[in-house]
Design a protein that fits this description.
Layout: H1 20-38, E1 54-58, E2 72-76, H2 77-82
Antiparallel strand pairs: 1-2
């Protein structure tokens, strides 16, 4: 495989403040921080022990109008990211 210079990769650009994706990103951050603040952190790396290697998933997806008020749960990365919320609603 040919060499690829990592500097040639485009930088991630977050969506503008006030946009719907921005608000969803902030909601996800608040959910993660709330779990980390309440959970035990034995190895002192800033993540709660029960969240190590896992995702904080919203009970009602943010793309479907959910928020942290509907609740969150800890689940594996593969389970959380395997859902396709882009499918048409019936």
């Amino acid at each position: 495989m040919p060499y690829k210079n990592p500097k040639d990769r485009k930088k991630q650009v977050n969506k503008p403040v006030g946009s719907k994706p921005f608000k969803a990103r902030m909601e996800r951050q608040r959910a993660r921080r709330a779990v980390d603040a309440t959970g035990r952190d034995a190895n002192k790396n800033g993540k709660a022990d029960r969240r190590e290697g896992k995702d904080v998933s919203h009970n009602k997806a943010l793309s479907r109008g959910g928020s942290n008020k509907q609740g969150v749960r800890i689940e594996s990365r593969s389970a959380n990211r395997s859902r396709n919320y882009q499918k048409k609603k019936k």
